[in-house]
Amino acid sequence: MTTDFNMRDPAGNDRAYDEYFQIATYLETNFVETFPKLDLDSKLHQLEYRQRDDQDYLRHQYCVGTSLKEISAMLRTRTARMLDDAAFMIANGSKQVQPLSGFKRLSFGYLALAVLLSKEDVSTSIGQLVSTDQKSRSYLFDLLVRAFVPQHPVEKKYKADKFVSPWLDPVVRALARPPQQRAAALGQHMQNWTRLMRGLGWKPNLNTEPGNDKLFCDFAFEVALAVCAYDIDDSAFSDHPYYPADLVRHYRAHVRGTRDAWRAEGVGAGVAITAPAPPPKADLAKSKRKSLARWIELVADGDNDATEAVLEATGKVRKVKDLDELLCALSDNNLAVHADIKDDQTLEIQASDLGEARGLGPFDGPSTPPQGPARCEAILHAWRDWTAARGYVQVGIDLQDDAWHAVLVRQAFHDELLQLSSELAIPPLPAH
């Protein structure tokens, strides 16, 4: 069934995928034999599971390296079956039978395969499969569906889910930016993508040999959907091992100019996008954190989740021995500027992200100089004044390298941060 040559999953194992498809074939045969003998309630439960399994099968096909042509054929078969199963369930009293949820990665995977591979109109099938239950809807999923199915509704308010917001919200924030900034924002998000997937099965040195780690059968399908929906340049991250670049190439070569030619360049869902609100913060004046934990908490502006994520990466130490590790962890959690000396685009995106995370709104750097180190200097000067007017101080960090490093801290805690920096051997620079 599998070959190393075709494998898309960066950590995939032939034997593990063979085992999955063997079990899937057995369950398929068993379903055909046993389903007619079940009572109605059991039939409805089995069909609900089969809708999930059909999506999972398609995602496994993509990850293992099945050709896009074969996946397209299976997609037609499985989608037709999902629609038939939904019709049967509705006819027999089930209420919520639409399997595509805005909070499930499995649904993003199915949606990407369905809308990026098919040359045929998908609006009817997608419209019937996307859940209308408010509890199953997310802002990003609805925005992406609407870009391909223009009659799909996008609500004014959505309930946030803290378990999925870490991988949903960065894409929404990227799309909420001006068109010329979206590519850089998505590129930065892709740098963090595997870290965000740790709770979902990814980890460094993943060993998917049978008997060890489970397969991490997933890709950044939500990013691919955003790229195709909003016609975003993905060249800076198209070689990321978990970015489904061949899906995007197929869509642009065979679908964008035909089936989706109705959609103007870059408009996506055709509605204004609102960036997610910043997360709730701890009261910095009442905190009992000490040493590095307190330093991180101050530059995180009280964001407990971000503070804990950085501490998990660095450990609780009395002196920081690896400054680059600390700055990488801070940058991964959108707590620091950490950009190459010539990379003005990344610097501007990171500076804006730090402001938005504190509820200060987006930051737009000066347009001149046009690019490179000179523009970086201008951005940092403008950002210093912009944050100071809003009660924050920009603190540079000296790694003695060819890059820009800086954090933000509230003015009221600036002296405390400098004292902690001295104790922890984190060398600050004067504000730019």
Task: Summarize the model shown.
This protein has 432 residues and is mostly helical. The chain is built from 16 helices and four strands. It has helices spanning 14-34, 40-64, 68-91, 105-117, 123-129, 139-148, 165-176, 179-196, 221-229, 245-254, 291-299, 304-314, 323-332, 344-357, 372-388, 414-424, and strands at residues 337-340, 392-397, 403-410, 428-429.
- Mean pLDDT, to the nearest integer, reads 92
Compute the number of helices: 16
Query: What helical percentage do the residues reach?
Result: 40-55%
- Radius of gyration (Å): 24 Å
Note the quaternary state here. Answer: single chain
Strand content: under 5%
Please tell me about this protein's structure:
With 432 residues, the chain is mostly helical. The protein is built from 16 helices and four strands. It has helices spanning 14-34, 40-64, 68-91, 105-117, 123-129, 139-148, 165-176, 179-196, 221-229, 245-254, 291-299, 304-314, 323-332, 344-357, 372-388, 414-424; strands spanning 337-340, 392-397, 403-410, 428-429. It has a four-stranded antiparallel β-sheet with strand order 1-3-2-4. Strand 2 and strand 3 (403-410) form a beta hairpin. It is globular, with a radius of gyration of 24 Å. The model has no long low-confidence stretch (mean pLDDT 92).
Keywords:
single chain, 432 residues, mainly alpha, four-stranded antiparallel sheet, 16 helices, 51% helix, 5% strand
Question: Helices and strands in order, then pairings?
Answer:
Blueprint: H1 14-34, H2 40-64, H3 68-91, H4 105-117, H5 123-129, H6 139-148, H7 165-176, H8 179-196, H9 221-229, H10 245-254, H11 291-299, H12 304-314, H13 323-332, E1 337-340, H14 344-357, H15 372-388, E2 392-397, E3 403-410, H16 414-424, E4 428-429
Antiparallel strand pairs: 1-3, 2-3, 2-4
Helix pairs in contact: 2-3, 2-4, 4-9, 4-10, 6-9, 7-8, 8-14, 9-10, 11-12, 11-16, 12-13, 14-15
